[in-house]
Design goal:
Elements: E1 25-37, E2 41-48, E3 51-58, H1 67-71, E4 77-86, E5 101-112, H2 129-134, H3 136-139, H4 143-165, E6 169-170, E7 188-190, E8 198-200, H5 206-214, E9 219-227, E10 239-248, H6 253-272, E11 281-284, H7 285-292, E12 305-307, H8 309-312, H9 318-325, E13 329-335, H10 344-356, E14 363-368, E15 371-373, H11 382-392, E16 398-405, H12 408-425, E17 436-440, E18 445-448, E19 453-456, E20 483-488, E21 491-498, H13 503-512, H14 517-530, E22 538-544, H15 545-553, H16 583-588
Parallel strand pairs: 3-5, 6-9, 11-17
Antiparallel strand pairs: 1-2, 1-4, 2-3, 4-5, 7-8, 9-10, 10-22, 12-13, 13-16, 14-15, 14-16, 17-20, 18-19, 20-21, 21-22
Helix pairs in contact: 4-6, 4-15, 7-12, 10-12
Length: 601
């Protein structure tokens, strides 16, 4: 029953038919959606990537073999020819752009049939994620998914057009490179021609784009595929895409940030018609942690953290006093006006939630009609309680949560997670609002308890603040970096830094990170040597394309915006990857399999 097109061409895509084409002969092609059979009269929703048009088969006027119409089922691929006419007014469909017209079909070709589908390709069909991803080619037929793919393509075009105007060159960097420490596990690729040696897939184009600056390229960008073998979450995939850029002859953050601001504003305006603030907010990393408990704070609501260490250090509660004395802090968060919305069970759940975030525990004081109450009251004088109330802008019907620990960052981050949790509980977030800010002055180093040393918070090529270079060896925790992140609604959308271009400073950075000369040469020798031949001042930034699309379409699951994503275990349900390979393939790359030790799993 299958027929050839024989040179027939579409006159329009399904979603583009309109009343300007009335009473003309048209040809449309697509997939069969909903089908309604009234005996001799069949209505079909014909769908392609642009939308749906209703086509009508009338047995009395159909010129072809009408028995083929009776055989049509969901997802058959057909070509129809007929006249575009106005619908009867009482059958208009205001939900569709084509809802006032229909094609009265004279003839049809069945281009391909379809087996019964595991789920209907319909916006309202509820399907599990695993089923959607197993049959991703069906899921992608939905108009929602088609629109996401189109939007993603448009974002890439806006980016290319803008950066091209500024004189950037689009340059591809290798997918097979050298394994270097960049924070996450590398995906390794064995070499057939070099036994027992491996390539690594790039976690980012970082080293290559800096080499391009040394090469005199001046302005580079790339929409780059990156790979990281790390535990997944809703906004993270093992392979992801970055809008990556680097500029020469810049030594100030503002020179990079201003370019990115314009790009982000262009993308939001030209895709979803949102005008972002003329000037994005600015905040140092320290301020972000102090006020919001996060280096990527969601600015769409309040619930700011407050530091009461100076009060707590003089109270009668030993854990509070000890935390402050040992370099930690006591901080609070006031859930203003929410006391009556939280039961004792709710409060117990919040305490357990904070413990799951790593905090040792949480206490609270309630302020009802009779004043402050709670187990903490007896440890504070009335004067101290009054001061805490003033710091927190406390009032009746408030509940103030306290966390104390010797690790100040743990206190901040735990309260920061509680802040987000409460915002969701109390529905404080406006989903139609977009708040963008720059977080700057990140620490150059962070202490690794596992390695018992300071490691680079970003990477070892990030330039420290000029005034902090003196502390590289004497007080590394004090050193701030010329690093900057762009944050949108609590998501780290992108990050970058001004790079080190001075040979001596780069050598000292490696020494501060406890790299030996042998390790430097083994891991970065080719890179360090390049700097001996004149490296310009340079800096750059990478924007997470997938996260950007997530924000534009208002989803919280990154799998929704990637054509063929992986699930939580990094498996591709569509193809079954990763999978076993033939013994011969393993022999070619000198690999022998070892049975995994499953006793601890």
């Amino acid at each position: 029953m299958y027929e050839k097109l024989d040179g027939r061409k579409r006159t329009s895509y399904c979603g583009e038919f309109n009343e300007t084409q009335l009473n003309t002969n048209v040809t449309a092609m697509g997939w069969v959606g909903k089908r309604r059979d009234f005996g001799g009269l069949v209505f079909v929703d014909l769908r392609d990537r642009t939308g749906i048009v209703q086509v009508v088969f009338n047995e009395s006027t159909f010129k072809g073999d009408y028995s083929k119409v009776d055989l049509l089922r969901n997802e058959f691929v057909i070509c129809v020819q007929g006249k575009l006419v106005i619908r009867d007014e009482d059958t208009y469909n205001p939900k569709l752009p084509t809802g006032t017209v229909e094609i009265r079909v004279d003839d049809m070709q069945v281009l391909a049939s379809s087996n019964p589908v595991p789920f209907l390709v319909d916006e309202d069909t509820k399907v599990s994620d695993n089923t959607r991803l197993k049959y991703r080619y069906l899921d992608l037929r939905r108009l929602t998914m088609q629109n996401i793919l189109k939007l993603r393509s448009k974002v890439c075009k806006i980016t290319r057009d803008y950066l091209d105007e500024l004189g950037f060159l689009e340059i591809e960097t290798p997918a097979l490179g050298k394994s270097t420490p960049e924070g996450a596990r590398d995906y390794l690729v064995p070499s057939r021609t070099f036994p027992n040696k491996f390539f690594a897939l790039p976690q980012s184009p970082q080293i290559y784009k800096q080499l391009l600056m040394i090469s005199g390229v001046d302005k580079y960008y790339q929409i780059a595929k990156c790979f990281r073998d790390e535990d997944l979450r809703a906004d993270r995939q093992p392979e992801f895409t970055q809008i990556d850029m680097e500029l020469s002859f810049v030594d100030q953050e503002e020179q990079v940030m201003s370019i990115v601001e314009i790009l982000i504003k262009k993308i939001f305006k030209q895709t979803i018609n949102v005008d972002l603030d003329e000037k994005f907010l600015r905040m140092t990393w320290r301020e972000a942690m102090d006020r919001f408990g996060s280096d990527k704070p969601d600015m769409r609501f309040g619930l700011e953290l407050k530091n009461i260490s100076h009060v707590a250090q003089n109270c009668l509660l030993e854990p509070f006093k000890k935390a402050v004395a040992n370099g930690g802090s006591v901080r609070v968060l006031n859930a203003k006006g929410r006391l009556n919305e939280l039961s004792r069970t709710d409060l117990e759940k919040l305490v357990n939630f904070v413990k799951s975030c790593g905090a040792p525990g949480m206490s609270y004081i309630t302020y009802g009609e009779d004043g402050p109450k709670g187990p903490l009251i007896k440890f504070f004088t009335q004067e101290q309680l009054d001061e805490i109330m003033k710091i927190c802008d406390g009032d009746k019907n408030d509940i103030i949560f306290f966390i104390a620990d010797e690790d100040d960052n743990l206190v901040c981050s735990s309260l920061g997670k509680l802040r987000l949790h409460l915002a969701e509980m109390f529905n404080l977030i406006d989903e139609n609002d977009y708040k963008v800010l720059w977080v700057t002055d990140f620490p150059q180093f962070e202490y690794s308890k596992e390695e018992k040393r300071f490691v680079a918070m970003h990477h070892p090529f990030t330039c420290p603040k000029d005034e902090d270079v003196q502390y590289l060896f004497t007080d590394p925790a004090r050193v701030r970096a010329k690093a900057y992140d762009i944050v949108v609604n609590g998501y780290e959308l992108g990050g970058g830094s001004i790079r080190i271009n001075d040979q001596d400073l780069q050598e000292n950075m490696f020494k501060a990170l406890k790299f030996s000369e042998e390790q430097i040469q083994e891991l970065f020798g080719f890179f360090v040597n390049a700097f001996k031949y004149g490296a310009p001042p340079h800096g750059g930034l990478a924007i997470g394309l997938d996260r950007l699309i997530m924000l534009l379409v208002k989803t919280t699951d990154i799998k929704d915006v990637i054509a063929f994503p992986k699930i939580q275990t990094a498996m591709d349900l569509l193809t079954g990857a990763p999978d076993y390979v033939a013994d011969k393939q393993l022999e070619d790359v000198y690999i022998k399999l070892v049975e995994p030790d499953l006793k601890d799993e």
